[in-house]
Write a structure and sequence with these properties.
With 338 residues, this protein is mainly beta. The chain has no helices and 29 strands. The protein is 0% helix and 53% strand.
Length: 338
């Protein structure tokens, strides 16, 4: 089974493709394609047939067909946007493209045709607030969440009911959850086996775990833990967040301390226990965990390099494997199995 990695380079207007060896974690370059207009966020449909690229400089989303044997990408459509997207994902059916707009203060839903092309006009172009940074539906595809950072945003998570037939959003009750401190929820991931979400807090430099009520689609926090080592007093902010397919380990990068915070996840409660920090390339904005859960790849926004790590399956700690020069301003890293 081939494993393909895609990396967007906002500074080079390119997207790179690598194959990943599932035994060693080593990457082999397969080429690049030109993506004018500052490519940044990526999304892949659940069937792994189509890939979507947010072109922040051009304020567009481009749709690509993924060749089933090689992972080669073919451009099949582009749709214009009112402003630039900072995050994208498909819903759980692959029929809708969800996107968040930091400066645009918006969460949007675009239809995806049977040919895989995301097109307009959007079904939803919903004004939320400045600092909208992510947008995903839960595994049941009935609820959706849009976190907003603190400082330049309202420091809250908007909660919606999601109509999987129409793509429409309805504010839930309550319509938002606000942290007690100005933590600034930015990105989030779902526990693979439990009704739990984990949010990275950009300003709080922490991760907060929330219970998801499956009957109402509302969130309630039950733990917040720092991503920084004790005693660190320098500047820092958090970015993305990821959990292994097994649900055993969770990771969140520190931009400033330039490290990857590693956590063990309790199988019963979902509580997090810090297990260490590993140095990364400068400003680790983007990272991903491979589908086997054995490897983690972190891109340095300032260095233009991609660091590969092996995940210890007993402790969750990271062992450096290799460094790859990728290019200017790597903004997104994702891996799929074909």
């Amino acid at each position: 089974m081939p494993y393909l990695m895609y990396v967007t380079l906002q500074g080079d207007d390119k997207m790179l493709t690598f194959t990943m060896n599932p035994d060693t974690g080593y990457l082999t370059p397969q080429g690049s394609i030109d993506v004018p207009g500052g490519p940044a966020p990526l999304a892949i449909d659940p069937a792994r047939r189509f890939l979507y690229v947010g072109r922040r400089g051009a304020c567009e989303v481009s749709s690509y067909r993924i060749a089933p044997q090689t992972g080669e990408l073919t451009l099949i459509g582009t749709v214009g946007l009112e402003t630039d997207p900072c995050f994208m994902a498909t819903d759980r059916s692959g029929r809708f493209l969800l996107s968040a707009y930091y400066e645009g203060q918006t969460a949007a839903v675009h239809p995806i045709g049977g040919d895989g092309v995301a097109f307009g006009p959007p079904i939803e172009w919903r004004h939320t607030a400045r600092g909208a940074h992510a947008f995903q539906t839960d595994p049941t595809n009935r609820y959706a969440f849009v976190p907003h950072i603190a400082g330049r945003g309202p420091n809250e998570i908007r909660q919606f009911q999601f109509d999987a037939e129409t793509g429409r959003l309805t504010p839930n009750s309550p319509p938002a959850v606000q942290p007690e401190q100005p933590d600034g929820p930015r990105h989030f991931c779902f526990h693979p086996h439990r009704d739990i979400l984990y949010f990275s807090n950009e300003q709080g430099c922490s991760v907060t775990a929330y219970h998801l009520d499956p009957a109402t689609g509302t969130l309630s926090p039950f733990q917040t833990v720092s991503t920084l080592p004790e005693g660190y007093e320098g500047s820092n902010s958090c970015a993305q967040i990821g959990i292994t397919p097994s649900g055993a380990f969770l990771y969140a990068p520190n931009r400033g301390h330039n490290s990857m915070a590693c956590f063990a996840v309790d199988a019963g409660s979902g509580l997090l226990t810090p297990v260490g920090h590993v140095p990364t390339e400068p400003v680790p904005r983007a990272f991903c965990i491979d589908p086997t859960g054995n490897f983690l790849y972190s891109a340095g926004l300032e260095s233009g390099r991609l660091a590969a790590f092996r995940i210890d399956q007993n402790a969750g700690t990271l062992t450096p494997l290799e460094l790859y020069t990728v290019g200017e301003r790597p903004m997104w890293v994702t891996i799929l199995s074909l």
